[in-house]
TrEMBL record:
This is Cytosolic beta-glucosidase. Its EC number is 3.2.1.21, 3.2.1.45, 3.2.1.46. Belongs to the glycosyl hydrolase 1 family. Klotho subfamily. It comes from the Eukaryota. PANTHER family: GLYCOSYL HYDROLASE (PTHR10353), LACTASE-LIKE PROTEIN (PTHR10353:SF336). It comes from Dryobates pubescens. The active site is at 380 (nucleophile).
Length: 536
């Protein structure tokens, strides 16, 4: 049932984005290549072979996009820094790019001038390509020191103004999609070991960066350093069946616990160690494919988060499923489970993203119980549409937003320590291996138009109302928000249709005029030749 009420005073409302997905300018002003530049430039890696080379042109449109943030009346903006934009090879001693540093300085200053808090992620997947080529990226332990140098440069250059730092955004996807399935950059399929090894190095790196901040910068800058972990919720198919309950628990531990358990409890979840260890032994391996932390490392990693960022999009039903003994085990067969969805769940966009609002409340309560009720910021939550034509009246996103934020409000009343919510995302943007086919934005972008204009969707107007009321005051007012948002988007849709027609005409003109001109010249030459021949 829907709960009417408001969030505590001081609750932070915001939106997010990431560097590679929005900035563009992939090789401008001294930026070095990232693994995503290299990956997208290979044919067949991304839907329609699209790239983030220009993306939303966010590099050139900072002022415009900050105006959108002001329109939304958000308290904070979560964005990421592109490591190769400020350190082209990823190695501090080799080269710094002052223009890249200036770009982020200007962005941070503009946000603060407009009373918007910057929440900054140091890593949203765009590793410098040089580090991948030279060392194998996150498969190599040397990344720990290179990343720590980069993080310290960021603290030095921006830490006087940035007080909320995220070391890694969704490291699960970095490890699993980058080094296990190869769906994401760097596109490696190191089945069974790749993801575990990458995650191991990422966790150690996170801890090192937290300790660096703690010893060198905290007393002077008074900021916080956390990590942002993305996880779905796993609900047992039959909650009265212990086997299903155990399978659902494994689902959470193999997603969230993989990273959260070392940080909050000092080691990988027992169930992960048991399952991966057993499967490794069955394969005849001398040691587990899941690496181990030494006693010193466990102590060093435990407690290295001032807050926990949570990304959450959807839920699955989970049940036990034993995989036959496989010579080549993988992260996906290790937990012995199967995932199901309820066909009645709304799925407005991509086939993986079902709208199941109650899942977020259960996930937040699990975190409260499992990790000692840490300070939480929801760092990513949103829904995409997968439509070819532009649709600004996105009532499904309004329903998703309304449902999920309301369940977060219920979680707050359960005693969960949630201090902020970040909707994902500000703009339609480059969605990794899906290209531009999935659109998460509150603002539609016409990517066919070279100016990449932004158009507000109905959900932007609705989110603004939630922020303004700090929640859901009463049924009549909340119902009124929906009607107003729909009215507004109808008008904007007409503007977009007109603009799109003009863009189309301009494109036609760009092609037709030179062609007609060339034909005229050609015909003139032919006529001239004929004339001269007749008169000779």
């Amino acid at each position: 049932s829907f709960y009417y009420g408001t969030f505590p005073a001081g609750f932070l409302w915001g939106v997010g984005s990431s560097a590679y997905q929005t900035e563009g300018a992939w090789d401008k002003d001294g930026k070095g290549p990232s693994i995503w530049d290299a990956f997208t430039h290979q044919k067949g890696k991304v839907f329609r072979n699209e790239t983030g080379d220009s993306a939303c042109d966010g590099y050139y449109k900072v002022k415009d996009d900050i105006q959108l943030l002001k329109e939304l009346k958000v308290n904070h903006y979560l964005f990421s820094i592109s490591w190769p934009r400020i350190m082209p090879t990823g190695i501090k001693t080799e080269q710094l790019n002052e223009k890249g540093i200036q770009f982020y300085n200007d962005t941070i200053n503009s946000l603060l001038e407009n009373d918007i808090i910057p929440i900054v992620s140091l890593y949203h997947w765009d590793l410098p390509q040089v580090l991948q080529e030279k060392y194998g990226g996150w498969q190599n332990i040397s990344m720990i020191n290179y990343f720590n140098d980069y993080a310290n440069l960021c603290f030095e250059k921006f830490g006087d103004r940035v007080k909320h730092w995220i070391t890694f955004s969704n490291p699960w996807a970095v490890a699993e999609k980058g080094y296990e399935t190869g769906e994401h950059a760097p596109g490696l399929k190191l089945g069974g070991c790749g993801a575990y090894k990458a995650a191991h190095h990422i966790i150690k790196t996170h801890a090192k960066v937290w300790h660096s901040y703690n010893t060198t910068w905290r007393s002077e800058q008074q900021g916080m350093v956390g990590i942002s972990l993305t996880s779905g919720w796993g609900e047992p198919v039959d909650p009265h069946n212990q086997t299903d309950r155990d399978a659902a628990e494994r689902y959470i531990q193999f997603h969230l616990g993989w990273f959260a358990n070392p940080i909050y409890r000092g080691d990988y979840p027992e169930v992960m160690k048991n399952y991966v260890g057993r499967k490794s032994a069955q394969q005849g391996l001398g040691t587990s494919r899941l690496p181990t932390f030494s006693v010193q490392e466990k102590a060093y990693i435990k407690g290295t988060s001032d807050f926990l960022g949570i990304g959450h999009f959807t839920t699955r039903y989970v049940l036990q499923k034993s995989f036959p003994f496989l010579q080549v085990s993988s992260y996906h067969t290790d937990p012995d489970l199967a995932e199901l969805v309820d066909p009645k769940w709304p799925a407005p966009g991509p086939k993986w993203l079902y709208s199941v609002p109650w899942g977020v409340r259960r996930l937040l309560n699990f975190i409260k119980t499992q990790y000692g009720n840490p300070l939480i910021y929801v760092t990513e939550n949103g829904v995409a549409e997968k439509v070819q034509c532009s649709q600004l009246c996105d009532e499904w996103r309004i329903e998703y937003l309304r449902g999920y934020t309301n369940e977060i409000l219920k979680a707050l009343n359960d005693g969960v320590n949630v201090k902020g919510y970040t909707a994902w995302s500000l703009l339609d943007k480059f969605e990794w291996n899906k290209g531009f086919s999935e659109r998460f934005g509150f603002y539609h972008i016409d990517f066919q138009n070279k100016n990449k204009p932004r158009y507000p969707k109905a959900s932007a107007d609705y989110y603004k109302k939630i922020i303004n009321a700090n929640g859901f005051p009463n049924p009549r007012e909340v119902a009124n928000w929906y009607d107003k948002a729909m009215d507004t988007c109808s008008t904007t849709q007409k503007v977009l249709a007109t603009d799109s027609l003009i863009t189309h005409m301009e494109k036609v003109t760009e092609i037709v005029l030179p062609t007609v001109f060339a034909l005229c010249i050609l015909i003139s030459i032919v006529l001239l030749v004929l004339y001269l021949r007749n008169h000779s």
